[in-house]
Amino acid sequence: MVERLGNRIREERNTYGLTQVALAEQIGVSRKTINTVENGVFIPSTPLALKIARAFGRTVEEIFYLVDEE
Amino acid sequence: MNDDSKIEIADRLSRRRALMMPLMAVVFLSGQAIYAIGRVEAGSIIDQVKVTAWVAWALILLALLATGGGFLNSRAVRRLMDDESTRANRGRAYSVGFWLAMIVTIVIYGLTAFDTIAPRESLHIIVTIAVAGALVTFGYLERRDHRGG
Which residues, in sequence order, are CB contacts of A18 under 8 Å at separation 6+? Predict the structure, then answer.
């Protein structure tokens, strides 16, 4: 069973009205990195995942989750 | 207030870099035709110029791959251009370059059972293909990462 990392970044951005650029500015990474994490292309490091969650006032587990695929 | 934020500047430069890297690889590969045709005497002035030019070219391309370029920009912009996802893509590009070098080396070594291949030509081929492969890989991954955003 292959595990994939899902996330709720887009939903949270929409909730707070944040663009990828705005979120990237808050966290201190490039818009490209936000884009790749959001689209599941790139798995963030633990510090980056924590920063993303903190930007939304959430815990890491509330933003990221494992998607089991068969 | 800046018209373009550092994020936007880094984004624009990063997209440009993703286009330029594969292009430089193609130019680098195409330029090797100079070394394949018109044999000159080893050690001649022309030969020395050709070898020096290739060495400089290869080193510059490796430096650009390793650093990400953008030296005319602020440290903040360069840091954004070289953040986590870019470093991961660079790592994968290095991996591709390594495997290309290994495969080409093994092929050339195998060919020596049938024909003589000069060491200098062997090194030239191995490094050219490995460097070009790494540049193309990095450019491809960076362009992929910019999509959908």
Answer: A12, A26
Which one of B11, B85, B89 makes the best mutation probe of the A interface by having the most chain A beta carbons within 10 Å?
Answer: B85
pTM to 2 decimal places: 0.89
- Residue A65: its H or E element: strand A64-69
C-alpha–C-alpha distance, residues B53 and B126, integer Å: 17
The residues facing A64 across adjacent strands are: A7
Scored b (16 or more CB within 10 A) or e, B100-126 reads bbeebbeebeeeeeeeeeeeeebebbb
Buried b (16+ CB within 10 A) or exposed e, B31-59: eeeebeeeeeeeeeeeeeeeeeebeebbe
Q: CA–CA separation, A30 vs A49, rounded Å? A: 14
Residue-wise pLDDT tens digits, B32-83: 877 776 666 777 888 888 889 999 999 999 999 999 888 888 999 999 999 9
- What ipTM did this prediction achieve? 0.86
| SS3 annotation, B57-96 | HHHHHHHHHHHCCCCCCCHHHHHHHCCHHHHHHHHHHHHH
Q: Give the Cα separation of B27 and B46 in Å (integer).
A: 21
Cα separation, A5 vs B104, whole angstroms: 36
Chosen for mutation from A19, A21, A30 (greatest number of chain B CBs closer than 10 Å) is A30
Task: Note which residues in 32-61 of chain A have CB less than 8 A from chain B.
Answer: 32-37, 39, 41-42, 44-45, 48
